[in-house]
Write a structure and sequence with these properties.
Radius of gyration: 36 Å
Number of helices: 26
Shape: globular
Strand content: 15-25%
Length: 1454
């Protein structure tokens, strides 16, 4: 056969006509084209197959045309070394066929056994290895029936997000399903959709199977059976006999005939019985039923494994108090056959399956018998005759199963989320029904017969399509709660509620409710609880509901609110536009009232008359004063009045029970003198962000009765005199007194605070911290950054100290005790420019999980090149009261070929894995996407979608908010104005300061803040819980990861581009926790007052903590220096003296582990880590240790040019040989790089597929250690050398493996196998030789462990140390470091002559900037400050400009 033209093929694919194969492959006798690729067989599908294979072209045969099946055995996935690229997977014929029509594509069919899924995947996890994989080329019109006919298959199955597996209907079209899934994710370009569909990473999101996956764990839980020796009864009268034994549901079933179920079946109910091991017989269990007529069976198993499996499962059954069978989340299409023998089942859970109506185990057979059962002591009249509870939610039924209405014993029925449109009249048969859940369907009406269910007391109708309250509810007198959240009720007539006298609890949130009308004077006396949250009400008068106890009406547009106060107990009315609240009579039963985020200028008089009010929240209003009667209330325990305009607080006249008082962000200049000795129960006081100059005394006498535990005084004008006034608060646990005017802290006073646990003294003018801090034995957190401290405090002897932050001070040395407390986890000493650390000190610090130090670097003439970027940045992360940090940042001051930058922040909420992965991949992904499109909305959107895919199995159950900022020139005008493109999902936000005013650049994708997203999620029938979370999981409607919540939660980002101008001062990136506490305007004013971006970021986080944030906080501040014309040209290079400021210190990360030195650990934003096993001899006095990787790797060959997001055009470096001249003479020569790192020869540990593999330049080996003279976070470099010697040099296989235990660790350096004590000259023809060496091949084709970019910059200046790095050979980053500057580097004799020749050729290149060939090289985007000058490409031997090796950017490998 011959393949026909592209046009004919396109038509054939659409009309199911025959297509052939072009010439180029050998055609066998049977008409199949045998592809020439190894291990690949291409079978031609068509109507006219030869007789040798059997013809399917008869009248009844399906038209399986336009289908090609490529079978590849044991293909690995997720970027492993055995994977193949798109080019090697498909021949040229197949690629041409795919290019002919975007409606064509590839479907990957997996065998019945699958890769192991993580435990989070539930029952679908499998522990068996993957088998054959078939690649099927077809069109979007190809049906399952056609595919099965071509393959002689019985069916196809689809699995989403590693979860449930569903059988596809014969008429469904797999490729169209795949394309629709990608389109729903956010892909818009059909060509891109076709590319993505062939990507193997997609199998973690959607996967097709040719057979139902085998799952041993599922089979064990649903059914156990086998032929074993059985004896009935406890006496010896019965003999042992081999019988078929089955354990299913709640019963043990024993057949009366061996290997057959044709005879009588003996049923032994096990619930309430017992199962015991028989000691006298090996592998024997005794099963006994409950009750006086208990029966006993002895079963002797053949193996210990069988014995343990049966014992484990039977023990679960006998321990139950009710006869319940849970078969939820098993991808079941029918009830297991043997389950019908369990006649005592009362509760059956079939939730999250794909139950069908027909078939032996279909729902039609639940209420009745299809054939007589030959059993002993079984009622033959009905199956499940005692069934009381049936859960069929999330089964995609489509129609209400009327057969269920025949199970008259049901008291509870759950049919939620089944796409039901109607309820049959037969529902009236279930007279015993008490609970009916119909949430998450498409119902708009209910049958009148439903009103006859007199015992029904709970009816769930939430998230349907009701436009009014069903009238049938008037007859359901036992129903006391109306659950109709998420419907379409726009108008509520109170007279309708009056007729339903039995309804007490009304839930109408998320309905788009616009009016609540009361046309008559009739009182609604029965309603006690009313929930009207998240509607569109602008006024609300509920005075006719005279017995109302609880009202929730948050997030409306209420301007007025009128209520009856007779029985009112709780009022929640935040986030409205209220100027007053009218309640009559005075609500004497009111205990809690929340009126935050309104427009109240004063509090109503009735508030002071409430006799039982305990909690009042009036934050974020316009209050100018608080009534004296309110503060002197004898019932008020918690008063939140922050973010108002209060100028004074009334005096306390008598002792009050007040326990918590929040007065932050007001205009207070003083506090009441009697505050502390009148409010003796006060435990929490926050008066941050005021103008206080002093605080009141704790008592009137020397003896204090204060019980104050938390005191927040940040952001006032307090001086050191306040220290004496704090002494009386001897129960104080938390003290924040940051950003005041403290010159010192009285030593004698600090010693009195013996119970102090957390102390924040940041942003003052302290020169020392008193030595009496050692008296605070319970102190675990000391934060004192941004002071003038020059003496290290005596805190390392404290037994419980965990965190010490002394960054941005003036420390010069550290005096340490002989040993450090084992509790110390984090020590931040960055920003202390004069700090010198000895080997002994660093050795003592080696056990600290996170150690942050400045990395010293030397300044050379060429360093001025990297100091001229029009921006610089700083960042800060704080874990708060959480035990782990789930926020990561990405910072790249030099990104891409030109003057560009990239910044990002990622917040995983409760998980740290996904933020680390995104931190490590998104920079590279953006770099790749920029190769394909110059349209901002396209490349940014695709960056997020690709990163979502690259999360792999980690992204199935876990997710993160993400924000990415890209500063660039417009593609149409590369030398013109700069623009800032921002993309985000979730709740991370970006703010630009323009002329001193904040400009919001991002969109908050939370259900509470985005009405259109709320509507989209509602339309897709998600269940939104009362805390406004999708399925109770997340409040975000868009995230990276959490793919199991698709299509409710999507990864498609908001994209916005803002042109930059000279009025733009800086950019702030922050997570949800930051901007919940710090407003945009305050954030802008805060950064304006601090010149250093790092200090500004730290201040933002400290302020958020002092304002009450307990969660993880992350902030990035980018200082912008944009000229009038957005000019970013670098100044001419001078070899005489450097221009610009000296380079800032560079962060270094060290984490070698004893089990495996190549273990990698990650860190957000580029801080790095030491392990406790780092010896002092490995650590330099100003830098850190050089960790080694003892593993030798036979790495792959060199990948051609790879434009990395950090170093897209790095050239080969010159090499300086001892005696060849100083660095100052030849700035183009190699300089010792302080931020050098070791690169791991081990494989990636997270299964990601990032194509960032390329040779690394500037590699120095010294002894067993290896230095890499590049940025520690750069994972791909561009080679400028001669043409490749062979096509093999152009291809590089990927490496990958699943990350250990699903845990991701901090990452920012890489490790390389050591070679020997020689200097590696990586240039010219030496590259090929080095690639062939087993010990150096890992340098030419080894990516970062995540295949990603983590960018440290000059404002990081950190060595962050992590003991948490997994001790596994393919873990995350371990030990970067560098050697002492005095180390002697040795050039082997075999290379010395060639190196000297190269050095001679470099001299003319550094004479000045006049040589045009050096200009693009000098602008090579290496790291901003910390790095040596870029090296000229002409250093590479060879005439003329060296050709740049090209690489296929897009790799859709399996």
């Amino acid at each position: 056969m011959a393949m026909e033209d592209e046009d004919n093929n396109a038509a054939g694919a659409a009309t199911n006509t025959q297509t052939g194969i072009k010439k180029g492959g050998d055609v066998g006798d049977d008409g199949a084209c045998i592809d020439r690729q190894p291990d690949t067989v291409v079978h031609q599908a068509g109507l006219n197959q030869t007789a040798g294979r059997g013809s399917r072209s008869g009248p009844g045969a399906p038209a399986a045309t336009g289908i090609r099946v490529l079978k590849q055995r044991n293909m690995k996935r997720n970027g492993s070394r055995g994977c193949v690229t798109r080019k090697t997977r498909f021949g040229s014929r197949e690629r041409d066929w795919l290019k002919g029509d975007t409606q064509r594509g590839c479907v990957c069919l997996y065998g019945e056994t699958v890769d192991p899924q993580p435990p989070a995947s539930g029952p679908q996890a499998s522990s068996t290895p993957q088998t054959d994989l078939q690649l099927v080329l077809c069109s979007t019109s190809t049906t399952v029936e056609e595919l099965c006919a071509q393959r002689d298959g019985r069916g196809l199955y689809v699995q989403l997000h590693g979860d449930l597996v569903r059988r596809l209907d014969p008429s469904e079209r797999p490729l169209q399903i795949l394309y629709d899934y990608l389109a729903a994710m956010g892909y818009a370009d059909p060509v891109r959709v076709q590319h993505e569909a062939a990507n193997s990473d997609l199998s973690c999101l959607i996967r097709f199977y040719s057979e139902h996956p085998v799952n041993a764990d599922q089979q064990e839980r649903t059914l156990l059976k086998g032929v074993f020796s059985v004896r009935k009864g406890k006496t010896q009268l019965h003999k042992w006999a081999e019988r078929q034994v089955i354990l299913c549901g709640t019963c043990l079933i024993v057949a009366s005939v061996k290997d057959s179920l044709t005879g009588k079946m003996h049923i032994l109910p096990l619930v309430g019985g017992k199962v015991e091991e028989v000691k006298r017989r090996q592998h024997c269990l005794m099963f006994s039923s409950a009750g006086s007529q208990a029966q006993t069976y002895f079963v002797n198993f053949d193996t210990l494994a069988d014995f343990q499996r049966w014992h484990r499962q039977a023990s679960k059954v006998v321990s139950q108090t009710v006869s319940m069978v849970d078969l939820s989340c098993y991808s079941l299409e029918a009830v297991p056959e043997y389950l019908f023998y369990s006649q005592d089942i009362t509760h059956l859970n079939l939730r999250h399956n794909f139950m069908s109506l027909q078939g032996p185990g279909g729902l039609l057979n639940l209420p009745r018998l299809s054939k007589p059962l030959c059993t002993e002591n079984v009622d033959h009249s009905s199956r499940f005759s005692q069934l009381k509870s049936l859960n069929l939610s999330h089964n995609r039924l489509g129609v209400f199963p009327e057969c269920v209405c025949e199970i008259l014993t049901l008291t509870e029925l759950n049919l939620s989320c089944n796409n039901l449109h109607t309820v049959p009249v037969q529902i009236g048969n279930l007279q015993s029904l008490q609970t009916l859940s119909l949430d998450g369907n498409h119902l708009s009406s209910l049958p009148e017969e439903l009103g006859g269910l007199s015992q029904l007391n709970c009816l769930g109708l939430s998230f349907n399509n009701f436009s009014h309250i069903p009238a049938v509810l008037e007859r359901l007198s036992a129903v006391d709660k109306l659950a109709m959240a998420g419907n379409r009720v726009e108008s509520l007539e109170l007279c309708t509620l009056a007729r339903m006298s039995h309804l007490k609890n009304i839930d109408l949130r998320l309905n788009g409710l616009r009016w609540v009308k009361s046309e008559s004077l009739e009182a609604v006396s029965q309603v006690t609880q009313l929930d009207l949250r998240d509607n569109c009400l602008d006024s609300l008068d509920l005075s006719s509901i005279c017995n109302l106890e609880t009202l929730q009406c948050q997030r409306n547009q209420l301007g007025t609110l009128t209520l009856s106060g007779f029985t009112l107990r709780m009022l929640h009315a935040s986030s409205n536009r209220l100027t007053t609240v009218n309640i009559y009579p005075v609500p004497n039963q009111l205990t809690h009232m929340e009126l935050s985020q309104n427009l109240l200028e004063y509090l109503p008089d009735w508030v002071c008359d409430c006799r039982k009010i305990e909690m009042l929240d009036v934050t974020h209003n316009l209050l100018s004063e608080l009534p004296s009667r309110l503060l002197n209330s004898l019932s008020l325990r918690k008063l939140l009045a922050g973010n108002n305009r209060l100028q004074r607080v009334p005096d306390l006249l008598d002792h009050v029970p007040l326990e918590a008082l929040d007065l932050q962000h007001n205009k207070l200049t003083e506090l009441p003198e009697s505050l502390f000795y009148k409010a003796l129960n006060l435990k929490y006081l926050n008066v941050s962000a005021n103008t206080l100059e002093s605080i009141p005394p704790s008592s009137q006498s020397e003896e204090s009765l204060s019980t104050l535990q938390e005191l927040y005084l940040t952001g006032n004008s307090l001086n050191e005199n306040c220290g004496a006034l704090l002494v009386g608060h001897q129960n104080l646990r938390v003290l924040h007194i940051a950003y005041n005017q403290l010159l010192s802290f009285p030593a004698s006073k600090l010693s009195k605070l013996e119970l102090l646990e957390e102390l924040n003294l940041s942003g003052n003018k302290l020169k020392t911290i008193p030595s009496t801090v050692s008296s605070c034995k319970r102190l675990h957190t000391l934060i004192a950054h941004s002071n003038h401290i020059n003496v290290f405090p005596e805190i390392l002897s404290l037994p419980e100290i965990k965190l010490v932050d002394l960054s941005c001070n003036e420390l010069t040395e550290i005096q340490l005790p002989d040993s450090l407390p084992a509790t110390l986890q984090e020590l931040d000493l960055t920003g202390n420019s004069s700090l010198m650390l000895e080997h002994k000190t660093l050795n003592l610090f080696s056990h600290i999980t996170t150690l942050k130090l400045d990395q010293k670097s030397t300044t050379t003439a060429g360093d001025s090149l990297s100091a001229s970027t029009p921006w610089n940045h700083g960042y800060s992360e704080m874990s708060g009261q959480r035990n782990k940090l789930c926020v990561s940042v990405l910072t790249v001051d030099r990104f891409g070929d030109g003057v560009e930058a990239c910044y990002g922040i990622f917040d995983g909420d409760r998980n740290e894995e996904v933020p680390r992965l995104l931190q490590c991949t998104m920079g590279d992904v953006l770099c790749e996407e920029l190769q394909h499109s110059s349209i901002d909305s396209v490349y940014m959107c695709n960056t997020f979608l690709t990163s979502h895919r690259k999360l792999g199995m980690a992204g199935q159950k876990l997710g993160a908010s993400a924000l990415l900022c890209y500063i660039h020139h417009e593609p149409s005008d590369p030398g013109g104005h700069l623009s800032l493109t921002v993309a985000n999902v979730g709740t991370c936000q970006a703010v630009l300061c323009r002329d001193g005013r904040p400009v919001a650049l991002s969109k908050v994708y939370s259900l509470e803040n985005c009405t259109e997203e709320m509507e989209r999620v509602k339309v897709s029938k998600a269940i939104i819980t009362e805390d406004n979370k999708v399925s109770g999981v997340t409040c975000c409607s868009r995230l990276l990861g959490c793919s199991y919540l698709s299509p409710w939660v999507l990864p498609k980002p908001w994209v916005h581009t803002e042109p930059l101008c000279s009025q733009d001062e800086f950019l702030i990136l922050g997570n949800r926790a930051l901007f919940e506490r710090v407003s945009y305007q305050e954030a802008v004013c805060t950064v304006q007052a601090v010149r250093d971006p790092r200090a500004a970021a730290k201040k933002l986080c400290s302020l958020a903590q002092s304002y009450g944030c307990k969660d993880n906080i992350g902030a990035v501040v980018v200082s912008l220096h944009i000229g009038e014309d957005s000019c970013t040209c670098e100044p001419p290079v001078s070899t005489a003296e450097p221009r610009g400021p000296p380079p800032a210190p560079v962060p270094v990360s060290v984490t070698p582990g004893p089990a495996d030195p190549a273990t990698l650990s990650s860190s957000s934003g580029g801080v790095s880590e030491f392990n406790s096993e780092t010896s002092a001899s490995e650590v330099g006095s100003e830098a850190g240790s050089t960790a080694s990787d003892e593993h030798q790797s036979s790495g792959p060959t060199s990948r051609p040019e790879r434009r990395c997001s950090l170093h897209p055009a790095t050239t080969l470096c010159g090499i300086m040989v001892p005696g060849s001249g100083g660095a100052g003479t030849h700035p183009g020569l190699f300089q010792r790089q302080p931020s050098c790192a070791t690169f791991s020869s081990n494989q990636s540990d997270n299964g990601l597929d990032s194509d960032d593999e390329a040779p690394l330049e500037g590699v120095i080996s010294n002894g067993s250690k290896l230095e890499v003279e590049v940025d520690i976070h750069c994972c791909a470099f561009q080679l400028r050398s001669g043409a490749p010697e062979s096509p093999k040099d152009l291809d590089l296989e990927k490496r990958g493996s699943d990350y250990p235990n699903g845990k991701m660790r901090r990452q920012n350096s890489v490790v390389v196998s050591a070679t020997n004590g020689c200097l590696l000259a990586v240039c010219g023809r030496e590259i090929t030789d080095l690639k062939k060496s087993p010990s150096t091949s890992s340098l030419f084709g080894k990516k970062l462990s995540n295949g990603s970019v983590v960018a440290p910059e000059d404002s990081h200046n950190l060595i962050e140390v992590a003991l948490e790095a997994p001790k596994k050979k393919s873990g995350y980053f371990t030990a970067p470091a560098q050697q002492d500057p005095e180390d002697q580097l040795i050039v082997p004799p075999s290379l010395e002559q060639e190196v000297r020749e190269q050095l001679r050729g470099q001299s003319p290149l550094v004479s000045g900037p006049s040589a045009p060939s050096t200009a693009p090289i000098l602008k090579d985007p290496v790291w901003d400050h910390p790095h040596p000058p870029a090296f000229a490409s002409s250093l590479v031997p060879g005439p003329g400009p060296a050709p740049i090796l090209q690489q296929e950017v897009y790799d859709t490998a399996l």
